[in-house]
Amino acid sequence: MKTQEEAGHRIVLKKHHKWMIGGISAVVVIYMVVSIILISGLAVKQTSDYNKFTNEINKLQADTQNKLNELTENLLLIKEEVKQTKENLTDIEAIREEFNLLKASTGEDFSGVIENSVKSIVTIKTDVGQGTGFIITNDGYIVTNAHLLSEGKTIESTNYEKDKIPTEFIGSNTNMDVALLKIEGEYNFLELGNSDETQVGERVIAIGNPLGLQFSVTEGIVSGIHRPGINELEAYVQTDAALNPGNSGGPLINKIGKVIGINNFKIGSGESLGFALESNYIKDAVNVISQENLEREILN
């Protein structure tokens, strides 16, 4: 058996251990409480920062969307302004053309009509000769004299900008001496007038390439209408506007800028005796050619 002293000593050691354990436990508890407090504080701060960051993002997104909306509205306004400007420019161009025609109709000069018309004139070249043609539709159909193309194997058109353009032969009416050609692209074109309204004495111009002088213009008057030609048809406008080799196939244009004939031939033994196939006959010949070769009419 253990003595009383030994038993008391063992009891003292147990209390000491309890104090140590209690102290350690207290420290652990305090550490845990402090940790929880710190973690909670950190979590609160992170939550606060996250909410602040989210608010900033939302604000930035809203600002960005507002700016995009504003930019879209500005672009739409600019687009509308560009459209309006184009319309205004079109109106201005139409007014300018009308003014040019008015200048000619009042007898001032033909400069406006020439400016509007010359862009629709082409030089027709083959491997055996050259002449003139003019564009009658915006998609590049050209009228010229059929005799210019006889015996030729290649055809090339040169426009007012001096561009050389491959040219397709569509067909011809040899009795009327009219040929229909085609070039690719979109172009200014000349409108065929009603030759039945042509009056003797009215002023006209002829545009062509006499003796290779491209886009030359001569002025004259209508000397007669419904003159007979070598085909015995009374279908020709007589004019004193100078016509020379190279003018064949070019237009005879009146004071309002419409084609009243296609320059065809002149009487060499006389002075200022030129003849142009009347525009109504041109229209009929072109539609016959287009129906036969394209199975449709290209002129109304």
Structural descriptors:
Thrombin, subunit H, six-stranded antiparallel β-barrel, seven-stranded antiparallel β-sheet, alpha+beta, 13 strands, 25% strand, 300 residues, 3 helices
Give structural notes.
The protein is α+β, with helices and mostly antiparallel strands. The protein has helices at residues 4-105, 111-117, 279-294, and strands at residues 121-126, 130-135, 141-144, 155-158, 164-166, 168-173, 178-182, 203-208, 216-228, 234-239, 251-254, 259-266, 274-278. Strand 8 and strand 9 (216-228) form a beta hairpin. Helix 1 (4-105) crosses helix 2 (111-117). Among the domains are: 113-182, Thrombin, subunit H; 195-294, Thrombin, subunit H. A seven-stranded antiparallel β-sheet has the order 5-4-1-2-3-7-6, covered by helices on one side. A six-stranded antiparallel barrel has the order 8-9-10-13-12-11. The protein starts with a helix and ends in a 6-residue tail after the last helix.
Helix content: 40-55%
Radius of gyration: 47 Å
Given the C-alpha coordinates, what overall shape results? rod-shaped
CATH architectural name of the domain at 195-294: Beta Barrel
The CATH superfamily of the domain at 195-294 bears the name: Trypsin-like serine proteases
Q: How confident is the prediction overall: mean pLDDT?
A: 84
Would you give the CATH topology of the domain at 195-294? Thrombin, subunit H
State the end-to-end distance: 141 Å
Count of DSSP strands: 13
Q: Going across the biggest sheet, name each strand in turn.
A: 5-4-1-2-3-7-6
What does the largest sheet look like?
Answer: 7 strands, antiparallel
Strand content: 25-35%
* Helix/strand/pairing category: alpha+beta
Which consecutive residue ranges, at least 5 long each, have pLDDT under 50?
none
Please give the count of helices: 3
CATH class of the domain at 195-294: Mainly Beta
Output the helix-strand order: HHEEEEEEEEEEEEEH
